[in-house]
Design brief:
Shape: elongated
Helix content: over 70%
Radius of gyration: 19 Å
Largest sheet: none
Structural class: mainly alpha
Number of helices: 9
C-alpha cells in the first residue's frame, strides 16, 4: 500500500466516522420536531410510542414497556459485542451490523418517525463505510478502545434504563462518546505491534 493510498483511506475513515457522529447528533436534536405545539418531543418518543402501540394490540402497557426496553438493551449489548468482534476479525460488514444495532438502541430516545429516518440514514452510511473502507484486524486492546462508545452506552443503558429517564441515557451517550475519543488517541500505540508485523510480512513477501 502506497503512502498516498494510505492517506486517502485514513481520510475516508475520518469522513465516515464523523458522518456517523453527526447523524446521531442531528437526529437526537431533531429540529424538525421542535414545533410550537410540541414543547417536548418526549410525548412522541419511540420509547413511549412503541409500548402504547403494543398496548392497543392487547398487551399490558407495563409489560410492553419492559419488552421495548429489554429489546433496546439487547440491541445495545449485541451491537457493542459485534463491533468489537468485527475489529478483531477485520470484518467491515460485521462492524456495520454492530453499529446499526447500537443505533437501534439509541433510536428509542427519538420521536418515532425521526427514529425511522435515523435508522435509514445510519444504514446507508455504515454500508458505504463497509464498502469503501477496509478494516484490518487489530489486537483485543485496540478493539476494546475503539468501541468504547457503544460499549459504554450499553453498560450505562443496562444500569439506568430501568429509571425510564431518557435524559440520563443521553448523558451516558455523550460521556461514552467523550471517553471513546480519548481512548482512540491510545489506539495507535496499542496496535503498533500489529501494524509493524504486518508491514514486515509484506516486505518479506516482496
Amino acid at each position: 500500500m502506497t503512502r498516498a493510498t494510505s492517506l486517502r483511506k485514513d481520510g475516508l475513515l475520518v469522513v465516515f466516522d464523523l458522518a456517523i457522529v453527526l447523524i446521531f447528533a442531528l437526529f437526537l436534536w431533531a429540529p424538525w420536531d421542535r414545533t410550537a405545539s410540541a414543547i417536548s418531543s418526549s410525548t412522541t418518543m419511540a420509547w413511549l410510542a412503541l409500548p402504547v402501540t403494543l398496548a392497543r394490540l392487547g398487551m399490558h402497557l407495563e409489560f410492553a414497556t419492559m419488552i421495548v426496553t429489554v429489546s433496546a438493551l439487547v440491541a445495545a449489548a449485541l451491537g457493542a459485542l459485534l463491533s468489537i468482534a468485527a475489529r478483531l476479525r477485520g470484518s467491515a460488514a460485521l462492524w456495520a451490523v454492530g453499529v446499526w444495532l447500537f443505533g437501534s438502541s439509541v433510536a428509542i430516545l427519538m420521536p418515532l418517525w425521526t427514529a425511522v429516518g435515523f435508522l435509514g440514514a445510519l444504514l446507508l452510511i455504515v454500508a458505504l463505510r463497509a464498502r469503501f473502507v477496509a478494516m484490518p484486524p487489530v489486537s483485543a486492546l485496540a478493539a476494546f478502545l475503539s468501541e468504547l462508545w457503544p460499549l459504554g452506552y450499553a453498560a450505562g443503558f443496562a444500569a439506568l434504563a430501568w429509571r425510564y429517564n431518557p435524559q440520563l441515557l443521553l448523558k451516558v451517550l455523550v460521556i461514552a462518546l467523550g471517553a471513546s475519543l480519548v481512548a482512540r488517541a491510545l489506539v495507535p500505540s496499542a496496535t503498533g505491534g500489529n501494524v509493524s508485523s504486518t508491514a514486515a510480512t509484506h516486505s518479506d513477501n516482496s
